[in-house]
Design brief:
1008 residues, mainly alpha, two-stranded parallel ribbon, 35 helices, 75% helix, globular, G-protein coupled receptors family 1 profile domain-containing protein, glycoprotein, transmembrane helix, transmembrane, receptor
Length: 1008
């Protein structure tokens, strides 16, 4: 778990560095775009970017954590290289803006530099330096680790460091390496936690003052998000230390995931900060536009995207580690560096060129804001290049033969120290802007850059090569503790400032996007601290689960920080280069976009963190058998395991196999160990029967047993599996019949739902084009739209099922089951929401009218987001229970849904039956038609839910019945699935009827 947390924090840190540099780049190079992004639109974009950073952080951390492979360093270095490229671009762009003369200026005015642009350049440069320092540390450490220059006493003859990044865990076998690694991580934590704590405190103060982050600088928002990523890193360090102390390998394995999240997120937010500065300088009109509600929405969407991409990348690296993983890291890092570099040069260009009406003589008069943007982007660029250089040098030395394994591991662990500048640059810049730092060389700098960069990640390979050594653990724990010590003083003031701002404004809508990113980064940093605590607890208690949790927290921080870095740079880029766009993003729309992005980053981070936990309990999405193969062998193996106390004859085994055909779809049994083919042959030979008929049956059964073994062990194509099954048994076997019923059910359901779904989505698109917003859309209609989108997962699951059956890919067939679980769960919730909405419209009309306002729309959107989260959580629960099915939780959810809907129906019926004010009992015919329609809607939903519930109960009763044969149980259980079809069709049909697309008339019901 520690690698997960570590990767999470590292990735997130780089992303937020990139975001910070992009924000500075926009502030200098595109000031119009930057000003546009200061509005609600820009806030939305900022939030979306932050969310994307978080999602990417979790994704990359999960990938690093779950699927480690020899080329992991390349995949790890790719995001660093991308971030470095982005920050470098921002730096040179801002530098170009700084050095070029402005309009009407001559070369003699080159000394007059805009202070804001200079600050943006310094910010980007600082980020660039720390990123290069971090990269250099990694490269040096891993280069020395792979070299043969230092000590050979711990190398093995079969080790190939230049091609294998996750060699054996005994490469750095001494426990002192782990202790050294923990020590380094602890030092890093001690440095970063105070800083990010201060950042969090300031962010909270700012939020308490303004009650919104809409007016906050985009860079500050990015810094807040990076602080959150750093907290994830710290949490991963704690988890790792705890896991190492307790000896729990699962917790140790989670650290790379959390580390990756922080690392990716940091880079992303660095890029966003540089972009924000870039817009403020280069495109000021765009930047000013992004300061409105539109810009706030864009900012929020960016943040959400960062948070989504961060866990996705972390989870991908964690789950699917393979030799090309280091290339992925380098590409991502390169993108971040490119973005930040572009922002830097763009801002520099704006700074050096003469402004309108200025001559070359006026070049010395530089806009202070542009100068600050340039400095911000340059700082981010420098730290990113430093981080990348450290990574490249460490891994180059690790892959060389210049030194022994002891020195390699030591240098590899020490590469973590190159990440500290990358993690500290954003919070320090934020504190300087907030007036908490009095740097004489940086006077009156009020950076808009705010991507509180937090962690970065040491590659997962350390977990493979050096993670079992005491020295490595010591370094990591020290690093995490030091990081927490450094970040906590920064995070707490930032949060306090944000709280003060919120208390003043009671909203974050006016908060700068960079500030929002910073707040989120600090939240990630809190997770990192938690991971560090869990790591230390693992070291003390030797509980493996603690180490797994610590890694997950670290990876969340890693990826999230990188994404928030990118968001910060993008926000700065828009503020400088595109100020008009930036100002437009400062409005409500921008705040929404920003919030969406931040939400996506966090959601994906949590999603992939949970996926990693499932992986270490051997219950994740990929299994070695397809659904059909598991169903085929399930009961057959179970029969053998139950009767292992006495020997089976071939005739007994025939009965057991015959019963197994009726077990298709019965996931209530565990898979036991499969008897070998030789066991079947020897047993059949030893159990000779006296009659010729028995011998013939034994001979046939032995052939069948061999065929079943071939089906289980090879299973390269489900088509060939079906052929084998049909050849070995009669075509009318229950297994084949149940398979046909299953496939027919899902295919028919998809055929019925697909046209309705497409038509509903088309009508929704038409309505959106007419109105340009979903605000005026009825809550019930919006629920139907989301349910239609969920039904697409059902259709995708059917396609996956058919493709898996045709191509023989077992994993595709299993994934289809998880896709089916999303719409089934969503149906329950959206049915409940529709009935509650109808209930409020009839029973509480005043409350219903109040919910039609902007406040009600926000509540509705929040609830819809929760429904999607619960649907995906249920999918994860299905994977956790696999091959079983969570019947009890399903029945609980189903029962609650029926109770809620029944209450709504009875309440509406009571309102319809009682006379209204001033009415007599005889005036029942004058009942409001809208209330009557609401009643019929609730009754229709109640009816289909009861029908579906009855089907489930019948299936459970049939499965537990002793009166029916196995063939009858299988057929009846599969046929009960068809009772779900009306439940899936009711809401689409009701919507189409309201839209006038259904021509039938139900006059007696009044549904018109």
């Amino acid at each position: 778990m520690y690698p997960f947390l570590f990767c999470n924090a590292s990735f997130g840190e780089n992303f937020f560095h990139v975001l910070t540099c992009l924000e500075r780049y926009l502030a200098v190079v595109h000031p119009i775009t930057y000003m546009r992004l200061r509005k609600a639109h820009g806030i939305r974009i900022r939030n979306i970017s932050i969310v994307c950073v978080w999602l990417l952080t979790f994704l990359l951390s999960g990938l690093v954590y779950v699927d480690l492979h020899p080329q992991f360093p390349t995949m790890f270095l790719t995001p660093i290289g991308i971030c470095l490229a982005a920050v470098t671009f921002c730096s040179f762009s801002v530098l170009y803006v700084l050095i070029r003369p402005g309009p009407g200026e001559g070369g003699r005015n080159g000394g007059r530099v805009d202070r804001s642009k200079l600050r943006a350049f310094i910010t980007i440069t600082v980020i660039l330096v720390v990123l290069w320092l971090w990269l250099g540390g990694i490269l040096v450490s891993y280069s020395l680790y792979g070299s043969n220059l230092v000590g050979h006493n711990m190398q093995r003859a079969d080790m190939q460091h230049n091609s294998s990044f996750n060699s054996t865990a005994d490469d750095c076998g001494a426990i002192v390496y782990f202790d050294l690694g923990i020590s380094i991580q602890s030092i890093r934590t001690f440095f970063l936690v105070p800083i990010y704590t201060l950042v969090f405190y300031l962010g909270v103060q700012q939020w308490r003052q303004q009650r919104s982050f809409s007016a906050a600088s985009h860079s500050d928002i990015f810094t807040f998000n990076m602080a959150a990523l750093q907290l994830i890193w710290v949490g991963g360090t704690v988890v790792w230390a705890w896991a190492l102390s307790t000896g729990i390998p699962q917790i140790v394995a989670m650290y790379p995931f959390l580390f990756s999240i922080a690392w990716f997120g940091e880079n992303f937010f660095h890029v966003l900060t540089c972009l924000e500065r870039y817009l403020a300088v280069v495109h000021p009109i765009t930047y000013m536009r992004l300061r409105n509600a539109r810009g706030v929405r864009i900012r929020n969407i960016s943040i959400v995207c960062v948070w989504v991409l961060t866990p996705l990348l972390s989870g991908f690296i964690y789950v699917n580690f393979h030799p090309s993983m280091p290339i992925m890291f380098l590409i991502l890092f390169g993108v971040c560096l490119a973005a930040v570099t572009f922002c830097s040069f763009s801002v520099l260009y704006v700074l050096i060129r003469p402004g309108p009406g200025e001559g070359g003589r006026d070049g010395g008069r530089v806009d202070r804001s542009k100068l600050r943007a340039f400095i911000t982007i340059t700082v981010i660029l420098v730290v990113l290049w430093l981080w990348l250089g450290g990574i490249l040098v460490s891994h180059s030395l690790y892959g060389s033969n210049l030194m022994g394994m002891d020195v390699k591991c030591l240098l590899l662990m020490c590469a973590y120290l190159f990440n500290i500048p990358s993690s500290m640059v954003s919070p320090l810049l934020y504190l300087h802007r907030a007036g908490k730092l009095s740097c004489s060389w940086f006077p009156s700098v009020e950076m808009s850059l705010n991507s509180s960069s937090t962690v970065n990640t040491s590659l997962n390979s350390v977990n493979r090569d050096c993670s079992n050594s005491d020295l490595s653990n010591l370094i990591i724990i020290i690093y995490g503790i030091t990081r927490a010590i450094l970040l906590c003083p920064l995070c707490i003031p930032v949060l306090c400032i944000g709280l003060k701002r919120w208390r003043k404004k009671c909203s974050f809508a006016t908060e700068c996007h960079s500030d929002i990113f910073t707040y989120n980064t600090i939240s990630l940093e809190a997770l990192r601290v938690l991971g560090l605590i869990l790591h230390c607890l693992h070291k003390l208690t030797e509980v493996p689960e603690l180490l797994t949790a610590g890694y997950c927290l670290y990876t969340i921080t890693w990826f999230g920080e990188n994404v928030f870095h990118i968001l910060t740079c993008v926000e700065r880029y828009l503020a400088v280069v595109h100020p008009i766009t930036y100002m437009s993003l400062k409005h409500v729309r921008g705040s929404r976009i920003r919030n969406v992005v931040i939400g996506c980053v966090w959601l994906l981070s949590l999603f992939f963190t949970t996926t990693l936990l499932f992986h270490f309990t051997s219950m994740i999405l990929i299994l070695n058998l397809s659904m059909q193969a598991v169903s085929l062998v399930l009961r057959w193996l179970d029969a053998f395991s139950v009767s292992d106390t006495h020997a089976f004859s071939c005739m007994d085994r025939q009965d057991a196999i015959a019963n197994s055909w009726s077990a298709y779809g019965d996931h209530g049994r565990h898979i036991s160990k499969t008897p070998s083919i030789e066991d079947n042959k020897e047993e059949c030979t030893a159990r000779n029967e006296t009659t010729d008929v028995r011998r013939t049956a034994n001979k046939n059964l032995c052939s069948q047993g061999v065929l079943l073994q071939i089906v289980e062990m090879s299973a390269n194509s489900l088509t060939s599996n079906y052929s084998t099954i049909v050849w070995a048994h009669n075509i009318s076997t229950p297994f084949l019949v149940c398979s046909i019923i299953d496939t027919t059910f899902f295919a028919t359901r998809s055929v019925l739902l697909f046209p309705l779904t497409v038509l509903i989505l088309y009508l929704a698109y038409q309505r959106w084009r007419q109105q340009g917003s979903w605000t005026a859309v009825s809550h019930c209609d919006l629920f139907t739209y989301h349910l239609a989108v969920m039904e697409l997962f059902d259709i995708l699951g059917t396609v996956s099922l058919l493709c898996g059956l045709l191509t023989g890919f077992k994993d595709i067939v299993r994934v289809s089951r998880y896709l089916y679980s999303i719409p089934i769960t969503g149906e329950f919730f959206f049915h409940n929401l529709t009935c509650v909405e109808r209930y409020l419209a009839v029973v509480h009309p005043h409350t219903y009218i109040g919910l039609r306002s902007a406040r009600g729309v926000r509540i509705r959107n929040t609830i819809i987001g929760c429904v999607w989260l619960l649907s995906f959580a249920w999918m994860l629960k299905i994977s956790l229970y696999y091959p079983l099915y969570p019947i009890v939780p399903s029945l609980v959810v189903f029962t609650l849904s029926i109770v809620i809907i029944s209450f709504c129906g009875l309440s509406v019926l009571c309102v319809l039956s009682r006379p209204g004010p001033g009415q007599k009992v005889q005036d029942k015919e004058g009942v409001d038609q809208s209330k009557r329609r609401a009643f019929y809607t609730i009754m229709a939903i109640t009816g289909v839910l009861f029908l579906w519930f009855s089907g489930i109960m019948v299936g459970i009763a049939v499965r537990t019945s002793v009166q029916l044969s196995d063939d009858g149980k299988c057929l009846m259980e599969k046929c009960a699935y068809w009772l779900n079809v009306p439940c899936s069709l009711v809401l689409p049909l009701l919507y189409l009827h309201r839209a006038g697309k259904l021509s039938f008339s139900v006059r007696t019901c009044g549904i018109k």
